[in-house]
Amino acid sequence: MFLTQSFPEGPRAPRDRILIVLHQERSSPGRIGLGLMARGFRLDIRRPALGDPLPASLDGYAGAVIFGGPMSANDPDDFIRREIDWIAVPLKEKVPFLGVCLGAQMLARQLGATVAPHAHGCGEIGYYPLRPTAAGERMFHWPRQVYHWHSEGFALPTGAELLAEGEMFPNQAMKVGPCAYGIQFHPELTFAMMNRWAHSASQRVLPPGAQPGATHVANRFVYDGPVRAWLDAFLDHWSGREKPAGAVTDRSVPAQSAI
């Protein structure tokens, strides 16, 4: 079970914590959180949308992850602006940062790039092809299909390196500086989370280009193995720690509100 934890801050704090930023009361860091805990990290979970503060410094932290949510990086809410501004902290301090979906779009906004809907109102909801760039191929072996839930995409910021591309939304993964990454897709979903998201898709009127909820779980059985392998390799690289053999990173987690 993931619980919000607070740990002492300051120059003597060991770098064994990862800051986790979520956007809904029942949101979960999923396989990313499980993978980081398997590597020996403690999770400091904060929800700025519900009033949690963000640390002024990441001294004592080994990294920070901002996850997705139903809101837009263009929304006028105070917490959205605070999170976008706060991303300057890991960038300045060169602490590993990962933005997932909304978190990637916030990273783009922090760097002066735009976030915008698809020109024809389309959305990526379900599994879609992913094409690594030459730079991406040098870093990881990427899955060829990944799971999405979004109807906005980010422009590539000046100085960022594009690592993977897509058809509907061209920019799917980027690297900024030595250790900041943004990904438009969702490798964090456990099987339980996938079932909830797929059920939500089946209950909604979806935008053009979205896949019906009934196909989401079926496609997971086809495509999830390479996604899991990519996530393990990415977390090894990003965190600087390898996952112990046999560690479980896909067990059930507390219910997450559908995005």
UniProtKB/TrEMBL annotation:
Residues 58-190 form the Glutamine amidotransferase domain. InterPro entries: ChyE-like, Class_I_gatase-like, GATASE. The keyword Lipid biosynthesis does not apply. It holds the Pfam family GATase. The keyword Transferase applies. Gene3D superfamilies: 3.40.50.880. CDD domains: GATase1_1. It comes from the Bacteria. Keywords: Glutamine amidotransferase, Transferase. This is Glutamine amidotransferase.
